[in-house]
Amino acid sequence: MNKIIKYVLYDIIRNKIVLAYTVFLLVLSIGLFNLGGNPEKAVLSLLNLVLLTVPLISIVFATTHFYNSYEFMELLVAQPINRKKIFLSEYYGVAFSLSAAFLLGVGVPVLLFGASLTGLYLVLTGVFITFIFVAMAFLASVITRDKAKGIGVALLLWFYFALIYDGIVLFILHYFSDYPLEYASLALTALNPIDLGRINVLLNLDVSALMGYTGALYKSIFGSIWGISLSFGLMLLWVLFPVLSSKRIFSKRDL
Amino acid sequence: MKNLSRHIVQITTLLLLAGLQVQATTLKVCATCPNTSIRKAIALAKPGDSIVVDGGVYREGTIDIKKPISLIGLNNPVLDGQFKGEILNIRSSYVTVQGFTLKDVEVSYLSDNAAIRVAEASHVKVLNNKIENAFFGIYLQRADSCEVRGNVVHGQATTESGSGNAIHLWYCDDIRVQDNKVSGHRDGIYFEFATNSHIQGNLSQGNLRYGLHFMFSDGNVYMGNTFRQNGAGVAVMYTKNIVMQDNLFEDNWGAAAYGLLLKDISRSVIKNNTFKRNTAGIYLEGSSKLDVQKNNFENNGWAVRLLSNCEQDTFRLNNFVGNTFDVATNGNTVLNYFSGNYWDKYNGYDLNKDKTGDVPYRPVSLYSMLVERVPPSVMFMRSFIVDLMDQVERVLPSFIPERLVDANPSMKRI
User: Fold this and answer.
1) Cα dihedral angle (A157, A163, A165, A167), rounded to 10 degrees?
2) pLDDT in tens, A39-53
3) What is the pTM of this model?
4) Fewest Cβ atoms nearer than 10 Å: which of A14, A164, A188, B165?
């Protein structure tokens, strides 16, 4: 398995997209930290960026990578190697390389300019988001053999989690505004890893105190060790669910 | 001739009075003096005398002052209330109390025990005292023309119901409250029916409820005070003709915290104040004819929350910088006026270089309207869809109150 991961990594590094991604993140984060002056503000701007670009790039890159290495996988399947191992190696290869790019591009500047607990949450959230969206990309890829369709599904997933979901929830909140929705809205955030990550970082920034009663309520929940571990636990579930289901599909279906 | 003699009589009376003033004696109280008790010294003193207390700790229960004398502490004498009743009870005009440390006043749910009470008197001066661990600190009732200056009042309040106010005025007129430091009480400075007073240079911080709280207190001037980290900021109600100038409201954070809460305030001026890091900078409810100008609103959650029952309020030449929401309102009726403010979120242009933007600025965002109506939607703060919604709404306003607009926003910070 380690050997396959190694080959996948070699392959990814050779095509230089990940390298470009690293440089892009690095330039953006260093720029943001040097522009604002206030590291907390930079972390906030970085958060917006991380929650928009990281999922998009992870999902698109992972989907295209999966389809591009289809022949390699077919070759491996012909060998006496467990299909699950092949799939997981592919997954780890892509997820590790993208997370490494993220850690280099965002983690290092955060460590240098704005090392704080919030910075740590930001980096952790970014890594989790990477793992989650690579997993979703793989799920989209194993569902269909058609590359265009796969990428379409992947993009739709990104669009859904980054934009549509929030719109739907806002609509629901507005429609049922006569009811006490504090806890319901909290539960609804758990159904979107991007929201989960955003709230996690936001509530650990000082701005949370500015969000009035509801903000204070969320802070009392998310601010505690218990709440933070719960939200990262939920994110872990968000990794596991698509990975395990796509692994199942991959090992059963006709390639 | 008749006139002259009357003059002579007048002059001699004046001279006699002056002689009396000069003859006013000074009584000394200290551990080694003939007089070791403040109570006895007061009993011995004649009107106009001074009593100088030199060091020491005095446990004499409640000390009543019923004649115009000066009580002056040297070398920090301590009056210990031992949690029994009040400490100084001033019931005469022209009394001065200066330089004492007063501590340990009983908490009572039946009477408002105070470290220093001034009742039905005028021209009383309470200067440079230190009050620790009191129920009420300095309590003025039906007093006028008094001065409370340079005192430090520090309480250890834990619950709102079991604590009193640091400086409390009730039915007073023409009082000067200046350069005091108050903390750890229920309300820092509390005025009820206190009129024409001057409140300047005080620091009120870390109080459980309000840093400053007044009701029915017309014609007061608040200048250069600092209100910081109070449970619910500053709340002022049912008052007209006040001036608030050069004050600093900062770090009033939390679920119910306001920098300044205005309820039924009218015909007042709020000028040159700074509001920093408050949940809501100014919250206005039922307030009318206010002139809010040249204030700085920095890094607040809501810079201004203007309920739609406010009317004829003017916001001019203010700076709005780094606030999550600049202005929020709860309805579509807008009877207030914004002009010439600086908004850091303004992204218009100034083609004719007259330093005012050519495009009007709408300080209320769609999202702030939504949050006002559905508080849980605050959890979408800074999400992509919210930014998108706000941008679209700003280009084509359909939900936000159309008339809440700054027609000539300033391009530069004022």
Assistant:
1) -160
2) 777 888 888 888 999
3) 0.83
4) A14
CA dist B398 and B387 (Å) reads 16
Interface test with B, best of A48, A118, A210 (most B CBs within 10 A): A210
- How many independent structural domains does chain A possess? 1
Whole-angstrom distance, CA of residue B298 vs CA of residue B273: 11
Q: HSE of A114 in the Cβ direction (CA atoms, 13 Å)? A: 30
Residues belonging to chain B:
414
Residue of B nearest to A41 (CA): B322
Structural domain span for residue A87: 2-252
- pLDDT, residue B19, reads 47
The answer to whether the Cβ–Cβ distance between B380 and A166 falls below 8 Å is yes
Tokens 């009376």 belong to which residue? B13
| Sheet with B302-306, side-by-side order of all strands | B63-65, B88-90, B114-119, B136-141, B167-173, B189-195, B212-215, B234-240, B258-266, B280-285, B302-306, B325-328
Please name the fold of domain B25-222: Pectate Lyase C-like (2.160.20)
Chains A and B form CB pairs within 8 A to the count of: 86
CA atoms within 13 A on the CB side of B301: 30
Rounded-to-integer distance, Cα A141 and Cα A146, Å: 8
Residue B81 CA: distances (Å) to CA of A209, B124, B140: 40, 21, 19
For residue B315, give the nearest of B291, B299, B289, B334 by alpha carbon.
B291
Say which residues have a Cβ less than 8 Å from residue B153's Cβ, sequence separation at least 6.
Answer: B115, B131, B134, B137, B138, B166, B167, B180, B181, B182, B183, B185
Q: B349 and B358 in contact (C-beta within 8 Å)? A: yes
Best mutation target among A200, A211, A222 (most B Cβ atoms within 10 Å) is A211
Contacts of B377 in chain A (CB under 8 A): 170, 173-174, 185
pLDDT in tens, B361-385: 989 988 888 888 888 888 888 888 8
Closest chain A residue by Cα to residue B281 = A210
Q: Do B255 and A213 touch (CB under 8 A)?
A: yes
Residue type, B111: S
Residues in chain A with CB shorter than 8 Å from the CB of B302 are 210
CB contact under 8 A, A47 and B324: no
Packing angle between helix A193-204 and helix A212-222, nearest 10 degrees? Answer: 100
Strand B248-250 to strand B226-228: parallel, antiparallel, or no bridges (unpaired)?
parallel
Q: Which residues from A are below 8 Å from B378, CB to CB?
A: 211-212, 214-215
B101 near B71, Cβ under 8 Å? no
Rounded CA separation A73/A77 (Å): 6
Decide if pLDDT at B2 tops 60.
no
The segment(s) of chain B belonging to CATH 2.160.20.10 are 25-222
Does residue B391 sit at the A interface (CB-CB below 8 Å)?
A: no
Query: What's the complex ipTM?
Result: 0.81
pLDDT greater than 60 at residue B328 = yes
CB-based contacts of A110-115 (< 8 A; 24+ apart in sequence)? A110/A29, A110/A43, A110/A46, A112/A33, A113/A30, A113/A33, A113/A34, A113/A39, A113/A42, A114/A33, A114/A39, A114/A40, A114/A42, A114/A43
Neighbours of B335 (CB within 10 A): 13
Q: B281-295: b or e for each residue (b if 16 or more CB lie within 10 Å)?
A: bbbbbebbebebbbb
- Across the interface, of B256, B378, B382, the residue whose CB is closest to A48 is B382
Q: CB distance A185–B324 less than 8 Å? A: no
What residues form DSSP beta bridges with B130? B101, B152
